[in-house]
Specification:
Elements lengths: L4 H4 L8 H4 L3 E8 L2 E8 L8 E8 L3 E3 L10 E4 L2 E5 L9 E7 L4 E6 L1 E2 L10 H10 L2 E9 L4 E4 L2 E4 L1 E2 L25
Parallel strand pairs: 9-13
Antiparallel strand pairs: 1-2, 1-3, 4-10, 5-6, 7-8, 7-10, 11-12
């Protein structure tokens, strides 16, 4: 993020810059002979005997606690919300990743019909509650709106769809690729 000139020189974001630069990320560690996953703030150190191999930024954390204010997405003054950059309490298409107690990874995509009268999509608190019901202990919001999409077994699933279910192709800046590991020959 420090290399993003538009971010670093934006006067409206200056009060939140320290929080923005320490937002949460989904991490993959190599720990001795095992691989471990975690969701942690960017400046958090890896566990001892672990090497950080990959990280994907996002935010805020949804579980175990919602960290909207801690990560600079939400700001309130005198009990009034003055900044909510994600529209956290408005239904929207959302994507998230979570880790269960046994270390399993769960991906969630909630779609939204943009012209729907029934407020399809989910709020961030609703997304957190849904993931908790799935047994997720740590969860991270990844993206929302038309940036939310998933490609699985040759099919694209879009976050924002029209009344016919058609999504809009939109370039995204980051992706998470998951591949099934091949068994090691004996």
């Amino acid at each position: 993020p420090e290399d993003n000139e538009r971010l670093m020189s934006n006067p409206e974001l200056l009060p939140y810059l320290d929080k923005i630069l320490n937002r949460s990320e989904f991490r993959r560690y190599h720990c001795e002979d095992t691989v471990q996953y975690d969701i942690a703030l960017r400046q958090a150190l890896p566990p001892s005997s672990c090497q950080l191999e990959q990280a994907l930024g996002g935010g805020p954390q949804l579980l175990p606690l919602m960290t909207l204010e801690q990560e600079g997405f939400l700001d309130s003054q005198n009990g009034q919300v003055v900044r909510d950059s994600l529209g956290s309490n408005r239904p929207n298409a959302r994507s998230a990743i979570g880790i269960t107690r046994d270390g399993s990874i769960i991906w969630v995509l909630a779609a939204q019909q943009s012209d729907s009268s029934n407020n399809s999509g989910v709020t961030l608190p609703e997304l957190a509650n849904f993931m908790k019901k799935l047994g997720v202990e740590k969860a991270l919001n990844l993206d929302g709106g038309s940036s939310s999409s998933m490609y699985y077994q040759g099919e694209v699933f879009y976050g924002k769809v029209d009344e016919t279910g058609q999504g809009s192709d939109r370039p995204v800046k980051s992706v998470l690729i998951v591949k099934q590991s091949q068994p090691t020959p004996q």
